[in-house]
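To illustrate the input format used throughout this study, we show a single complete record. The first block contains the structure-token representation of the backbone; no residue identities are included at this stage. The design step must infer an amino acid for every position from geometry alone.
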């Protein structure tokens, strides 16, 4: 797989407009149904069986490297895991894209640091210390990912790497990570309005998806942007009974 000059993914010499899904039902019949309805990319586990199943359904796949891509700590073990993963999967015809650790930058904040930053009794000195630590951790993580990417790209130079960001962080903070990626993106789920505060922009409506797309483009100019769109209801995650769900 490669990324064309206009940002289109090219797989086996053919340009593909990507319609993907994080949800992998794990059943061939359901995967076939996804393919029949226009889906062409699905998340798979880091195993040949999952990729075989995707291929049988006529789907391409992406695999998340997990923490193994970050060589800022546990370097020897993670590098070995990363190389083993690449060696096992890089020749599989269904594998189109690698994914970096999901929302890597935001996970430096969430949940512990985010709670501390919003404490009402936080002193200026404490805030300065937290922000200093965060900046150092961000730089260390970016450096670790850069080293991991060098290892992965040497082991598998044929496939692009996608970084999916959270709908958080400034453009300057995101840029440090987006510049490492071949493809960038963001998962923003704004419905229903005011329900969960998923958007940190002034715009909380559906239109914030476009605003976050602009933010991603600003953090990684000239790179393709794959936005993860909402295909679920927050109520499904927060209520136990169907009758309690808000029809909105």
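Output of the design step:
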């Amino acid at each position: 797989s490669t990324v064309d000059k206009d940002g289109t993914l090219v797989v086996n010499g053919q340009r593909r407009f990507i319609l993907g899904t994080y949800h992998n039902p794990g059943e061939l019949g359901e995967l076939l149904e996804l393919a029949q309805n226009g889906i062409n990319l699905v998340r798979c586990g880091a195993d040949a069986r999952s990729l075989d199943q995707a291929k049988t359904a006529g789907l391409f796949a992406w695999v998340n490297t997990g923490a193994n891509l970050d060589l800022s700590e546990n370097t020897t073990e993670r590098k070995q895991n990363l190389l083993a993963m690449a060696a096992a999967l890089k020749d599989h015809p269904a594998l189109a894209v690698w994914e970096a650790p999901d929302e890597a930058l935001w996970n430096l904040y969430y949940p512990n640091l985010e709670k501390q930053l919003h404490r009402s009794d936080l002193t200026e000195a404490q805030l300065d210390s937290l922000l200093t630590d965060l900046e150092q951790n961000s730089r260390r993580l970016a450096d670790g990912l850069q080293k991991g990417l060098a290892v992965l790209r040497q082991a598998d130079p044929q496939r692009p790497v996608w970084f999916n960001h959270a709908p958080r962080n400034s453009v300057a903070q995101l840029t440090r990570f987006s510049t490492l990626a071949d493809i960038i993106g963001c998962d923003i789920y704004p419905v229903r309005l005011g329900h969960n505060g998923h958007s940190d922009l002034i715009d909380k409506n559906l239109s914030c998806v476009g605003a976050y797309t602009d933010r991603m483009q600003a953090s990684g100019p000239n790179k393709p942007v794959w936005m993860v769109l909402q295909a679920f209801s927050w109520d499904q995650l927060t209520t136990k009974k169907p009758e309690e769900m808000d029809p909105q």
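Structural context for interpreting the output: The chain has one domain: 2-232. The radius of gyration is 19 Å.
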